[in-house]
Amino acid sequence: MELVHFKPFADTDGSVEGLLHTPILEMEERRETFPAVVLCPGGAYAFVSRREADPVALRFFAAGYQVFILTYSVGEKAKEFLPLRELSETLCRIREQATQWHVDPGHVAVCGFSAGGHLACSLGVMWDDPELLKRYDNHGGKNRPDAMILGYPVITADEYAHVESLENVSGCRQGTPGYAYFSLDRHVNERTCPDFLWHTVTDDCVPAENSLKLMAALQKAKVPYEAHLFPSGGHGLSVCTQETGSPDPYNARWMELCLAWLDRTFGYTL
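The structure assignment produced for this chain is given below.
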């Protein structure tokens, strides 16, 4: 196992921690590269939750994935697409360092929760968006994820919006065009990557309608997706264990379902 750290940009608060497999040299038939997952914890673009970082990272790592945790810029510094630029640069850097970090550059997923789900989905649907490209060179599309995994994500700017998240990331007040621009269901198109998403029907912080609206947009654009709506449970569940303050064995199955979907999507077996 190897640990790596880097900053997407030297002059921002964003930073990345990587947990990496290395080839087992004594094995003749050994794996030289591994698929990767970039994690975006939630926190309403006001902070970055560790509950949705390390516990999730360890489970993906145990399943054979290279894992990177992005701590992105928040609060007043979340404006001007900065978190999305930091995530974009993270994927580009991972692909540039793919040989050194034993990453399969064609199998890099993003995974986010709540506002982090908004960030991960933003990259999935806006990786080539004109407003992003005014502020960031995406190196010919090297920032495009190959899959996205979204847990109880913030998606829409309509009556089901999580207003704090969208005001923080847009830098605009609710009801303005700048605020509405970050309604991600409006940006889904045929270039959007495949998606796995899960939500609880009783989420009273970010309503399940956020995921339902994204599902409808994915369906219309004919983008492959798998979705799971659990009948009960609150918000911020992470891996649904005592470790994360939300023990729920039934909802915890999302991780098993997700790994099965991602393995199938990437054609990967450990």
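Interim note for the steering committee: The chain has one domain: 2-266. Strands lie at 2-6, 15-20, 34-40, 66-71, 103-113, 147-151, 195-200, 225-230.
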